[in-house]
Amino acid sequence: MSHETEYHDAMVTLLELVWGRGYMAPGGAGNVDRMVAGLDLRGQRVLDLGCGIGGPALHLAARHGARVVGIDIEEPLVARATRAAREQGLADAVRFETVEPGPLAFPDASFDLVFSSGAITQIADKAGIFRECCRVLKPGGHLSCYDWMKSEGEYSPDMLYFFEMEGLTYAMETLERHGEILAAAGFVDIELEDASDWYRRESRREYEAMRGALYPRIVELLGEKDARHFVEDWRSMVVVCERGEMRQCYCRGRKPQ
């Protein structure tokens, strides 16, 4: 059964313009490095969960020497990632696969690291996916995630408007709840970090660039209608970021030996 594509070409083009080639979450290669700080990945087997168009996986291979399997539920994104791996001469170190939602199609203890940037926020069954992450990790292996999360309470009208502008499926939880779910899934040495201040400033900078210096380029790439839509999308995101309702957070954990 095929999955309905949510990340259409216009959105991917816009995300790469704002966040860098190959990236569908903020921070680019620097954020990937931050997520794996302190880990020696040379020759290690990494699963990139929700790999998108491949930027993080390719960086993990090229910069950190990892062997990476990237998986995503959207075939067009996987096709773009596969092309990028060939173009960058990394096809021997990285492969990308289209998968169905649900249990991971890998044996127990298959990976040294499960990595995920901006994907868990769209998975409703967080308990199920974190159990699966723990299952496919080798004893002593690590999980590292960067995600968009929510504050306590129900979504506000501003957050619901942001979701409408995005046109994407979101299933946000709080950072504290992520920690509880990770512990219940079997992880230890859990580290939780709220980095919302960083992206609160960055999202404002991105928005000002999009409606200013970047706007002619966005129009050139996407046309006036889509350009106006994405500028308004970013404005709505800045609102919920600056109010502290949408948060950007890091989670790490380790599978016991």
Q: Describe it for me?
A:
- By secondary structure, this protein is of the alpha/beta class.
- The protein is 46% helix and 21% strand.
- A seven-stranded mixed β-sheet has the order 3-2-1-4-5-7-6, sandwiched between helices.
- Strand 2, helix 4 (75-87) and strand 3 form a beta-alpha-beta unit.
- It starts with 8 loop residues before the first helix and ends with a strand.
- The radius of gyration is 18 Å and the shape is globular.
- It has helices at residues 9-19, 28-35, 55-64, 75-87, 126-136, 157-166, 175-185, 196-211, 215-222, 224-242, and strands spanning 45-49, 67-72, 94-98, 111-117, 137-150, 188-194, 246-254.
- It has a single domain, classed as Rossmann fold.
Structural class call reads: alpha/beta
Q: How far apart are the first and last residues' alpha carbons, in Å?
A: 37 Å
Gyration radius, to the nearest Å? 18 Å
User: What is the tally of helical segments?
Assistant: 10
How many distinct folded domains?
A: 1
* Envelope shape: globular
Mean pLDDT: 95
User: What's the CATH C level?
Assistant: Alpha Beta
* Oligomerization status of the protein chains: single chain
Q: What proportion of the residues form beta strands (DSSP E)?
A: 15-25%
Q: How many strands, which pairing sense, and closed or not: the largest β-sheet?
A: 7 strands, mixed
CATH superfamily annotation: Vaccinia Virus protein VP39
Q: Mind telling me which CATH architecture this is?
A: 3-Layer(aba) Sandwich
- Helical fraction equals 40-55%
* Cross-sheet strand order for the largest sheet: 3-2-1-4-5-7-6
SSE sequence, one letter per element:
HHEHEHEEHEHHEHHHE
Low-pLDDT regions: none
Total number of beta strands: 7
Kindly identify the CATH topology: Rossmann fold
